[in-house]
Amino acid sequence: MHPDLEQAREGYEDEEHRGIPIDAGHRNYKDANHKPELICALTEFDGLCGFRAPGAAAELLAGLDVDSLKPYVDLLHAHPEEAALREVLTAVLSADREEMAHTVTEAAAACARLGGDYAPYADIAHHYPGDPGVIAAMLLNYVQLQPGEALFLGAGVPHAYLNGLGVEIMANSDNVLRCGLTPKHVDVPELLRIVRFEASDPGVLRPEAFPDGEEVYETPIDEFRLSRYVLPEGATPHDLTRPTPQILLCTAGSVQAGEHQLAAGQSVFVPAGEKAEVSGDGTIFRATVVA
Asked: Is the pTM of this model over 0.70?
């Protein structure tokens, strides 16, 4: 999860004032910028994004029939949305580690036994045994993207990428607050201060097609702009010249970008205003900023 711009500035200034080295493992704020991001699936892609409605989360947890999860189910039913999500996530991440590890082990066994909607959490638990993040993950929306679909992730939205390959673009920041499923630093109090306890639809994005063949993934921010071109063999070259710098990334086939022949996985940087003409038989993503 990532802070908004004001939170990032405050957090960075506070850690600078306290003299925490910029490369310290326990530092949360490496810079004073926010970190909105966009992930576009190249293959089938599984992830977690934003909170489920408390009732839906309660139903999922109750289905495991694990006694130590029942207090969380009751909390999710007993309070308004924000309070319910806040209390349960706080309780999960603040619980005794040994007791929570036992709960996660029981929950993982139940997930493996039940399969279906529970299968992703059995897989998470296999990779992170005993981690409270397994239970936290069950509070979030499970999302499956098809190739070409995308997710925009704004400030305060908990998320995780589970399986698949995608093109990711983000603002220039390295500020991340984690709630588990990682060997990296986890700062629970700071996470709970920053996270937005709002149930929301993940909002799967599909590109908007323009007459020149560009397919744009619209987002509410100016720090980046991601689009793609699917180029049929023999088609007229596309002039991608822009007044802003851009990166052109080939993800399928073979694309001629100016003087550069790009195969899948190769990219080229194009300075602002420099001629950029593409042709070929393949797919190319364009990463730039709003002009």
From this structure: yes
